[in-house]
Design goal:
With about 180 residues, the protein is an alpha+beta fold. It contains seven helices and five strands; from the N terminus they run ααααββαββαβα. The structure holds zinc ion (ZN).
Length: about 180
C-alpha cells in the first residue's frame, strides 16, 4: 500500500481522477505488476481506464514503458515501470517552491506594519492604510494597528517544517495476502 501522504497528494494532483482506483494502479506498479492486463485484473478497473491512468503517469514522467513483440503472436506487450525517483524529485521541487513563497511572505511581514478593520477584518500595510487616511477601504471604519508577531511565528514554524523535512519517502510493497 502507498501510505506516504506526500506521494498520495502528488499522485492525486497528477492523475486528477475522481476514481479512487487510480492510486491502486500505482500500487500495482510498485508491487511489480507491469502490464495493463495484470493491473486491470488486480484492481478490477476497466482496461481502458487503467491505460488512461498509465498514460497520465507517463505524461507526467513518473512512469515509463518498454515495448516488446511476442514472437509467436506478433503482438506488442507493454511493460510498465513506476519511476519513484521522479516523483520524489517532483515533491522536492514543489516543497522548494512553497519554501520560497513562505520566505517571501515572512520577509514582507517582518518589513511592514499592519492595520486592520475590526468590522470586516480587512488588512492593510502601513502604506495602504496611510493612503486611505487609516480608514477601511471596504467599509470606511477606522483602521487599528494589528500586531503580526503571531503570524510571523506561524510562518517561521512552517518554514522550519519544510526545511527539516528531508523527504524520507518509502514505497512499501504490499504483502502478498493484503488483498
Ligand atoms: Zn472595514
Amino acid at each position: 500500500m502507498l501510505k506516504d501522504p506526500l506521494v498520495i497528494e502528488m499522485l492525486n494532483e497528477i492523475i486528477q481522477e475522481e476514481d479512487e482506483g487510480s492510486i491502486s494502479v500505482v500500487e500495482c506498479l510498485v508491487d511489480g505488476k507491469d502490464t495493463d492486463e495484470e493491473i486491470a485484473e488486480e484492481t478490477e478497473l476497466r482496461l481502458n481506464i487503467v491505460r488512461r491512468i498509465l498514460y497520465k503517469l507517463y505524461d507526467a514522467g513518473i512512469a515509463s514503458y518498454k515495448r516488446s513483440k511476442d514472437p509467436e503472436t506478433q503482438w506488442y506487450t507493454y511493460s510498465w515501470k513506476f519511476e519513484q525517483e521522479k516523483i520524489i524529485d517532483m515533491i522536492k521541487s514543489k516543497h522548494e517552491e512553497v519554501l520560497k513563497e513562505l520566505r517571501e511572505c515572512l520577509q514582507y511581514e517582518e518589513n511592514n506594519i499592519f492595520f486592520e478593520c475590526k468590522v470586516n477584518g480587512c488588512r492593510c500595510s502601513f502604506e495602504e492604510a496611510s493612503e486611505n487616511n487609516f480608514l477601511c477601504p471596504e467599509c470606511g471604519k477606522e483602521l487599528e494597528y494589528k500586531d503580526n508577531s503571531v503570524f510571523i511565528n506561524k510562518l517561521k514554524d512552517e518554514i522550519h517544517f519544510y526545511e527539516s523535512n528531508n523527504l524520507s519517502i518509502s514505497f512499501e510493497s504490499a504483502s502478498p495476502n493484503s488483498k
